[in-house]
Design goal:
binds magnesium ion, Elongation Factor Tu (Ef-tu), domain 3, about 20% strand, binds adenosine-5'-triphosphate, Rossmann fold, alpha/beta, single chain, about 500 residues, 19 strands, 3 domains
Amino acid sequence: MSSQWLDGARAALGAVALGPLAEQVGRVEEVGDGIARVSGLPNIRLDELVRFDKGQFGFVQMLERDGVGCVLLDDVNAIEAGDVVRGTGDVVRVPVGPGLLGRVVDPLGRPLDGKGAIPEDGRQPIERPAPAIIDRDLVTQPVQTGLVVIDTLFALGRGQRELIIGDRAIGKTTIAIDTIISQKASDIVCVYVAVGQKSSSVRRAIDAIQANGAPERCIIVVSGAASSPGLQWIAPFTGFTMAEYFRDRGRHALVVIDDLSKHAATHREIALLTRQSPGREAYPGDVFYVHARLLERAAKLSPEKGGGSLTALPIAETDAGNLSAYIPTNLISITDGQIVLDAKLFHEGLKPAVDVGTSVSRVGGKTQARALRDAAQTLRLDYAQFIELEMFTRFGGMPDTRVRNQLTRGARIRAILDQPQHAPLRLADEIALVLSVQSGLLDALPLPAVAAFRRGLRDAIDRGAPDAIRQIQETGTLDAAAKQVLRDTLQGYAKMITPP
Ligand SMILES: Nc1ncnc2c1ncn2[C@@H]1O[C@H](COP(=O)(O)OP(=O)(O)OP(=O)(O)O)[C@@H](O)[C@H]1O
Ligand SMILES: [Mg+2]
């Protein structure tokens, strides 16, 4: 038969290539705890997506001589020993695109909010390489968290990775959610990833964002405590992939991972079930690498790459304030700083309970608005000195006038750092507050009146010094004349609040 005839027949059949088709096929040997051990699949690769008989998916986590360990992604109970497994030749991918904004999805991008199908702009792998060094730029633009204590003392920049760390139930999630709510006034796209959280906590977070923030610019990725370990494991990676879509198009994104301690525990669970050798605290040796390669994807891109940014706020939980446990030390060394929350402060009533002594922001300081930096110059030092003095005088030291003044001032600084939840401030409000306390306007005010002072502050400065406010909001600076007007307004307002 001539080859011409063969070519003609091929053309008639269209693009379908005739010939043998190699397919990777295996069989489930045992299944349980979200893991399946599969025999066969001789040429399967690590991280490859596999499909089970009844349409479920999993990915390969462990290669052994006589089989592979697969982590199941969904519907764990429907899979049985003997089921056929096929390799797909692809890795796990999730939908990306603006269609996800305003939606609540699971870690595979499937809607959980009952609002119907999500229009997607393609699918991207959950594991993507971090931007190269030459594609990055310095962190120069601020992220306004709306929390006085963070914006004045530990300013964050776009592209930074800042860890929020503390014991359980002392306001870690609240700081992250308040930061998301504060983006109502900015152009930042927010992605909140819940890993292994209670459904009630997730519900509270979603409600807070919907009631106070800009939910139409948020994506919420939920893998609850009841999800399979596989889904919980991929959730942070999914969140980053969805946020990178915006970063790579010159826009700005913020990812909150709540929390990486639970993610590390899931990683450990999977590793132990797939019989990887345990290391310190029974975590496998690669847990540092997993979190490092995840967080490296946060970046500020160079102008040639569009100038977009991806800021990461991972959360971690400590036991009895122990920052030197394995996962906390890992995360502290990976990130560009940490906001440390203190259980004692929280129970004394200081909220957010930020420990000023151990918290730090290593790159964001340079992005702080000029006017705020000028106003808050000595705030941290004054506050630190106050905390020491307070401890000292608690033991019955007789303070002289200078020390008494320092104590008065310090107590007012603490009062302005105290802030109710879900009430982020504008940059101008923060500058006005810090100016008031640092110029001594609040010293004559009884402590309980400071809360009243901050409640009415916004109205007072909007009315008394509109030009100064506009200048701050537009340029982040304050010229001498405007500053004087603002000072006078604050003085008048403080006098009004002070009881006779
Ligand atoms: N600034 C604040 N003002 C008033 N209440 C607050 C503030 N911050 C946190 N809380 C309250 O403290 C409680 C614990 O907060 P949150 O859930 O944020 O803590 P968490 O550390 O994330 O807890 P978990 O360890 O359970 O995740 C919540 O009831 C919250 O409403
Ligand atoms: Mg929480």
